[in-house]
């Protein structure tokens, strides 16, 4: 068994140690180098497009393999059977002005689990649309980073109600507001290598509850009638991208996810009143990756997200790759 207090202590030690290393590197380095090409790391959100009229398209492909589960106290346990998922998430971003962009993600999932069947075909998830405003432009010579503000809504396009089985669950049925603030700065280290640092924080909150009937993504069963509302959630983290040369970059994300439990109320198939709030959950993930760009506007990234600590969530490994294209 894993000592929970030790895990938490180690998590925060890793986070602050990595942050200290990044700040030390940045504080002792020269201003940003020109000409480095990036695709962006696996987890960190990118800011507004650099110029009006640019269209960015970045499809991500990932496979998620659970290898266990973290209990309420953070201890890890074996998990059988295991829920597996193949996903495509494509980011679409368009520069309306030099400082304002609109961004959307299309998400398609296919899941399966032994004894629980397969999805009845590829399933669309909820559809987030955000406005992205770069409210501070970077000035590398003065060590001023770029700051971006995100604000948007998840539209409830994923299946969540009257499901054939739980594999078809891909949404919440609720409109969810989300916002984020991001920071990005680039420096020169070790003589002539670019080091890009990003930090960010996301916050999400449901705008209203949704009607639930029968088998739903909220864990209800046949005969249930009532309503549900997802809990608040968020993410914070930082990424480092180190340029080996103009085309090749080593990337790493470290992020913390958290979510309050969703609430469900109504009557079940036996006429019994139900009013419950699910347990909260959280995780820590690290995502090392390698980027390769053959032009300033086209590149690929390959890596894996590894969920190495948390509570009430899966111990997961998620290898993935993406293609970054800017037109």
Q: What structural keywords apply?
A:
327 residues, mainly beta, Porin, 12-stranded antiparallel β-barrel, 4-stranded antiparallel sheet, 19 strands, 7% helix, globular, disordered N terminus
What does this structure look like?
By secondary structure, the chain is mostly beta strands. It has a single domain, classed as Beta Barrel (Porin), CATH 2.40.160. It is 7% helix and 55% strand. The chain has one helix and 19 strands. The strands form two sheets. A twelve-stranded antiparallel barrel has the order 1-3-4-7-8-9-10-13-14-17-18-19. Strands 11-12-15-16 form a four-stranded antiparallel sheet, with no helix packed on it. Strand 9 (176-189) and strand 10 form a beta hairpin. It is globular.
Write the layout of secondary structure elements.
Elements: H1 4-27, E1 55-70, E2 76-77, E3 84-95, E4 100-113, E5 117-118, E6 123-124, E7 127-136, E8 146-155, E9 176-189, E10 193-206, E11 210-213, E12 225-229, E13 233-243, E14 248-259, E15 263-267, E16 273-277, E17 281-295, E18 298-311, E19 313-326
Antiparallel strand pairs: 1-2, 1-3, 1-19, 3-4, 4-5, 4-6, 4-7, 7-8, 8-9, 9-10, 10-13, 11-12, 12-15, 13-14, 14-17, 15-16, 17-18, 18-19
């Amino acid at each position: 068994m894993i000592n929970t207090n030790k895990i938490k202590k180690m998590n925060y030690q890793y986070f602050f140690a990595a942050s200290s290393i990044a700040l030390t590197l940045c504080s002792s380095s020269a201003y940003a180098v020109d000409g480095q090409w990036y695709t962006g790391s696996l987890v960190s959100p990118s800011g507004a497009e650099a110029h009006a009229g640019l269209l960015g398209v970045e499809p991500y492909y990932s496979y998620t393999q659970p290898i266990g589960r973290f209990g309420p106290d953070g201890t890890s346990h074996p998990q059988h059977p295991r829920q597996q998922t193949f996903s495509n998430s494509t980011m679409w971003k368009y520069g309306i002005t030099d400082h304002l962009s609109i961004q959307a993600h299309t998400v398609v999932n296919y899941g399966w689990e032994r004894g629980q069947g397969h999805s009845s075909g590829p399933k669309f998830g909820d559809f987030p649309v955000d406005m992205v405003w770069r409210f501070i432009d970077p000035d590398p010579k003065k060590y001023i980073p770029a700051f971006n503000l995100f604000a948007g809504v998840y539209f409830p396009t994923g299946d969540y109600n009257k499901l054939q089985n739980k594999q078809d669950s891909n949404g919440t049925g609720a409109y969810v507001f989300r916002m984020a603030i991001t920071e990005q700065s680039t420096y020169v280290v070790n003589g002539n290598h670019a080091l890009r640092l990003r930090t960010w924080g996301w916050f999400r909150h449901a705008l209203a509850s949704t009607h639930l009937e029968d088998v739903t993504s909220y864990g209800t069963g046949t005969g249930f009638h009532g309503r549900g509302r997802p809990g608040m959630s968020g993410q914070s983290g930082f990424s480092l991208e180190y340029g080996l040369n103009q085309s090749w970059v080593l990337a790493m994300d470290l992020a913390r996810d958290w979510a309050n439990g969703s609430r469900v109320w109504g009557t079940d198939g036996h006429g019994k009143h139900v009013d419950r709030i699910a347990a909260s959950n959280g995780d820590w993930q690290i995502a090392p990756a390698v980027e390769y760009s053959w032009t300033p506007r086209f590149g690929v990234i390959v890596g894996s997200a590894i969920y190495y600590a948390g509570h009430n969530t899966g111990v997961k490994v998620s290898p993935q790759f993406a293609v970054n294209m800017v037109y």
